[in-house]
Specification:
GO terms for molecular function: helicase activity. The chain has 752 residues and is of the alpha/beta class. It is built from 27 helices and 21 strands. Bound molecules: adenosine-5'-diphosphate and magnesium ion. Magnesium ion (MG) binds next to α12.
Length: 752
C-alpha cells in the first residue's frame, strides 16, 4: 500500500477525529477505507410527522422553526436545540458537543425558514419527540432543490462496526471526508486491469464509493460482490504463489525400488491381510509418481471416515524408506500418535523390527516421539531419528521442536491436518536437507471450496470408497428423557458385549461439577492441542442456560458400573486430563478387550481404530457438530460386525439441534454432512481461529455461499501468477498479499 492509502488519518482528518478511530485500529486512510459497513440502514420513504413512533428510524421533510446553541448548566458542554415543523406538528433536533463552537456549523445550516430532510431515531425528552444527532440534508446548501435533497436522503445509510466512543455516523463522516477527494490514481487496485476487463468488474475507487456512499441497494450489493471477489482473488494469488514457490524447491526424488529388488513396500503389499480398494490403488499410484519427482509433492488426501488413509500413507512412507529416506508422521494428539505407532508396527510386523533379532533383514523401525515421554525414552527416539535407524518417526507437535533432527527426512505426513497450521507444516519441512515431500490427510471430508481456501496450496486426492466387507453403521436418536429407551440402550450394550464386541460411551464433559458455559468449550477443553478447524461451536449460543447440564465422563462411568444390565462388565474411562501413560493404558485395555465399555470424551474422535468396537452411545449428541459426530461414529462398524450409533439427545423436537442429529442418523455420506455442517455455522468457526481473529483475513467472503466466487478467483489468480510468478507487473497485488501475510503472521504470533 502506497500513496494516499498509506497516509495517516491524523494528518488527513486532524488528531481530534483520528484519535478515536485509532481505538478501532484504524490508523491510515487505507484502514478506514477497508472498514466496510456491517449493513445498511434503509431511510425508507418520508414519514408523516403525525406518525412518529418512539424508537423508529424516520426521515421527515420539514421547515426549521428555530435553532439556538446554549451551554448546559447541569453538565459541562453545549447543546444545540432546533425545532422543525411540517406546519402542524413539531419535532425537536438535539446536538451535543463539548464546546459551543463545535455546534456553530450546524447552527449556520439550520437557518429558520429553510427546508431540509432529517433522518434519525425518534426518542422522547420531557414529553417532546426528538431526533438526537440526526443526519440531515438542507435544501439550498447540501442539495439544490427539494428533489435532490430527497435523493440524497433516500440513499442507504451505511452502518459501520462502531464503538460507544466512535458511533457509526462519525465513522461515516470520516469515510466521506477521506473518500470524496480521492481520484482513481490514488487508490491501488490489487485486481489487475485485464482481470477486471474480462470479468466486467468496476475499479477499486468506484467500488469503495459504491460500498461507502451507495446511491441505492443495487450499488452497494455490486460493490460488496466485487470486494468479495477481490478478497478471494488476493487469497488465491497468495496460494498460487505458494504452490509455485514450493514447486520450484528442490526435493530428493524417491522412486520405487525396481521389481525384484528387496523392498519394504513390496513386502508389505504381500503381507497385507486385505486387498487394497480401487481408490487406495489409484491414489497410491499418484503418490508413487509424485514421490519420484525431484520436486516436493504437495498433496492433500481427504477421505471418508474409515476409507483406509493410514495404509495409503504407510505405502508412501515405505517407498521413501526404500529409496533411503525417512518419513515423519505428525498427529494432533498423543492418543492418536501412540495409536498410529501401534498400528504401523502391527501392519509392518517383522518389517518394523529392522536390526533386531527376528526382524526382517532390510526392515526399519517405528519411533514414537511425544511431549510427555520420559527423558530416557525421548533421548532414544531422538537418537533413532537422527541416526536414521527409525525409518518412521511418529509424533505430536513435539516433532516440531528444533532439537529433533532427522538423518534424511524425505516425507512428512500430517494426519488430521485441521489442527495444524501452515506454520507448523513449514517447521517440519524445514527439517529436511532438501524440501521433504508432503502428504496432508484430513480427518473429515471437506467441501471443495473449503479445500480451496484452507488448503489451497495443495493438490487434492479423495478416497470416497470404504473397503467392502464392512457391515456399516446404523444410527438412531434416543430421547434422553425417555427412561425406557435409555434402559433399552444399556440392554443393547450388554448384548453386544456378550457377543464379543466393545462399546464406546461418549460424553462432552470430564467432571460433572465443572461449571462450563456450554458444550462447545466442554468439547474443546479436552483437546491436547490447538483448536480444531472443523469442530463444533454450539450452534445455539445463549441457550445453554436453560438446558440440563452436560453429561460428564466421571459421572457416567460410575453410573454405568451400577447399572444392572451391565453387571460384571469392566467400564474404563479416557479423557484429556489423564496422564499420557494412563491414556495409553486405557486405550490398550480397551483394544485388548480387558475393558469392554469405554466412557470417554471426544479424545477418541479422530482416527482411533478398534475393530471390535461395534456400539457408540453419544450423550448430548445435539450439542456436537455434524462433522464431529460423523467422525465419532466412524469409530464403530469398522470390522465385519455391523455398527450401531445411539445418539442420546435432549434437543426439543423441531429445533435446529434436533434437525442436526436427525440428519446424522439419516445419512452416512461424510461429504454431504460436511457441507450441511458448514451451512449451519459461521465462517469463523469453519476457518479456525487464525481466520476469524480481530483483523480477520476473510472480511466479506463466505466459504459456502461464495463457492463460485472462490472458484473463479482461483482460476484468474492461477493465470496471473503463471504468466508473472513474481507479480512484478502487479505491485498492488503484491502489496495486498504482503499485507495479508502480515496479518496472518501477527495472528499466529498472538496465538502462540
Ligand atoms: P481412516 O481413513 O478413517 O483413517 P483407517 O486408515 O484407520 O481409516 O482404516 C480403517 C480400517 O480399515 C483399518 O482397520 C484398516 O486396517 C482397514 N483397511 C484399510 N484398507 C482396507 C482395505 N482395502 N480392505 C479392508 N480393510 C482395510
Ligand atoms: Mg485415520
Amino acid at each position: 500500500m502506497t500513496g494516499r492509502e498509506a497516509e495517516a488519518l491524523a494528518k488527513v482528518l486532524g488528531a481530534r477525529s483520528a484519535t478515536p478511530l485509532a481505538k478501532l485500529g484504524l490508523e491510515t486512510v487505507g484502514d478506514l477505507l477497508r472498514h466496510y459497513p456491517r449493513r445498511y440502514g434503509d431511510p425508507g420513504t418520508l414519514t408523516d410527522m403525525d406518525r412518529l413512533a418512539l424508537g423508529e428510524h424516520v426521515t421527515v421533510m420539514a421547515r426549521v422553526a428555530r435553532a439556538s446553541v446554549r451551554t448546559m448548566r447541569a453538565r459541562s458542554g453545549a447543546l444545540l436545540q432546533a425545532v422543525v415543523t411540517d406546519g402542524r406538528h413539531e419535532l425537536a433536533l438535539t446536538f451535543f458537543a463539548k464546546r459551543p463552537g463545535a455546534l456553530r456549523p450546524h447552527e449556520e445550516k439550520l437557518k429558520p425558514q429553510s427546508v431540509g430532510l432529517f433522518t434519525g431515531v425518534v426518542s422522547e425528552y420531557r414529553g417532546t419527540r426528538q431526533l438526537t444527532h440526526p443526519d440531515y440534508v438542507m435544501v439550498g446548501i447540501d442539495a439544490d432543490d427539494e428533489e435532490s435533497a430527497m435523493f440524497e436522503a433516500s440513499r442507504p445509510i451505511p452502518i459501520y462496526p462502531a464503538s460507544s466512543s466512535v458511533p457509526s455516523w462519525r465513522i461515516q463522516r470520516a469515510v466521506r471526508t477521506v473518500l470524496d477527494p480521492l481520484r482513481a490514481d490514488d487508490v491501488e487496485d490489487p485486481v489487475p486491469v485485464e482481470v477486471r476487463a474480462r470479468l466486467g468488474l468496476a475499479g477499486r475507487l468506484d467500488t469503495l464509493r459504491a460500498v461507502h456512499t451507495p446511491a441505492d441497494k443495487e450499488s452497494w450489493a455490486k460493490g460488496r460482490d466485487r470486494l468479495r471477489f477481490e478478497e478471494a482473488f488476493v487469497l488465491q494469488a497468495a496460494l498460487a504463489q505458494r504452490r509455485a514457490r514450493a514447486a520450484e524447491q528442490e526435493a530428493t526424488a524417491r522412486p520405487p525400488r525396481p521389481v525384484g529388488e528387496p523392498s519394504l513396500l513390496a513386502d508389505l503389499d504381500a503381507a497385507l491381510p486385505f486387498d487394497l480398494t480401487q481408490g487406495q490403488l489409484s491414489v497410491g499410484e499418484d503418490l508413487a509418481r509424485e514421490l519420484s519427482e525431484p520436486r516436493p509433492m504437495q498433496r492433500l488426501l481427504q477421505g471418508e471416515v474409515g476409507s483406509g488413509k493410514t495404509v495409503v500413507a504407510l505405502r508412501a512412507m515405505l517407498q521413501v524408506i526404500d529409496a533411503g529416506g525417512q518419513a515423519a508422521l505428525l498427529a494432533p494428539t498423543e492418543v492418536l500418535a501412540a495409536q498410529h505407532a501401534r498400528t504401523l508396527r502391527l501392519l509392518l510386523g517383522p518389517l518394523a523390527e529392522g536390526g533386531l533379532l527376528g526382524g526382517a533383514e532390510h526392515g526399519t523401525q517405528v519411533a514414537l516421539l511425544t511431549g510427555s515421554l520420559g527423558a530416557a525414552a525421548r533421548k532414544k527416539a531422538m537418537l533413532q531419528a537422527a541416526s536414521g535407524e527409525a525409518g518412521i518417526v511418529v509424533g505430536t507437535h513435539a516433532l516440531l521442536s528444533e532439537k529433533v533432527q532427522f538423518a534424511d527426512l524425505g516425507l512428512v505426513v500430517v494426519d488430521e491436518q485441521h489442527r495444524f497450521g501452515v506454520e507448523q507444516r513449514d517447521a517440519l519441512r524445514a527439517k529436511g536437507r532438501t524440501a521433504p515431500h508432503l502428504l496432508v490427510m484430513t480427518a473429515t471430508p471437506i467441501p471443495r471450496t473449503v479445500a480451496m481456501t484452507v488448503f489451497g496450496d495443495l493438490e487434492t486426492s479423495s478416497l470416497t470408497q470404504v473397503p467392502s466387507g464392512r457391515a456399516g453403521t446404523t444410527s438412531h436418536v434416543v430421547p434422553a428423557d425417555n427412561p425406557r429407551w435409555m434402559e433399552r440402550t444399556w440392554t443393547r450394550v450388554r448384548e453386544e458385549v456378550d457377543a464379543g464386541h466393545r462399546v464406546y460411551v461418549v460424553c462432552p464433559r470430564i467432571h460433572p461439577d465443572e461449571d462450563l458455559p456450554d458444550g462447545s468449550s466442554a468439547a474443546r477443553q479436552d483437546f491436547d492441542d490447538v483448536p480444531d478447524l472443523l469442530e463444533l461451536v454450539d450452534a445455539e449460543p445463549g441457550r445453554s442456560g436453560d438446558r440440563a447440564p452436560l453429561r460428564a465422563v466421571l459421572e457416567v462411568a460410575p453410573m454405568l458400573r451400577e447399572t444392572p444390565a451391565l453387571a460384571g462388565l469392566e467400564v474404563g474411562v479416557l479423557h484429556g486430563q489423564m496422564a499420557p501413560a494412563d491414556k495409553e493404558a486405557a486405550m490398550a485395555a480397551f483394544a485388548a478387550g480387558e475393558v469392554q465399555v469405554l466412557v470417554s470424551t471426544t479424545v477418541i474422535e479422530v482416527g482411533v481404530d478398534v475393530p471390535e468396537a461395534t456400539v457408540m452411545v453419544i450423550f448430548d449428541a445435539d450439542r456436537f457438530g455434524l462433522s464431529q459426530l460423523h467422525q465419532l461414529r466412524g469409530r464403530v462398524g469398522r470390522g465385519a460386525a455391523a455398527g450401531l450409533c445411539l445418539l442420546v439427545s435432549t434437543a426439543q423436537p423441531g429445533s435446529p439441534a434436533a434437525a442436526r442429529v436427525e440428519a446424522l442418523a439419516e445419512t452416512t455420506d461424510g461429504f454431504r454432512l460436511a457441507t450441511l455442517d458448514l451451512e449451519l455455522r459461521s465462517e469463523g468457526d469453519v476457518l479456525g481461529a487464525a481466520q476469524s481473529g480481530r483483523s480477520s483475513s476473510l472480511r466479506l467472503l463466505r466459504v459456502v455461499q461464495d463457492a463460485d466466487v472462490i472458484a473463479r478467483a482461483r482460476r484468474e489468480a492461477a493465470d496471473v501468477v503463471a504468466s508473472d510468478p513474481g507479480l512484478d507487473q502487479q505491485p498492488a497485488l503484491r502489496a495486498a498479499i504482503a499485507a495479508r501475510l502480515d496479518e496472518e503472521q501477527e495472528e499466529f504470533l498472538e496465538r502462540a
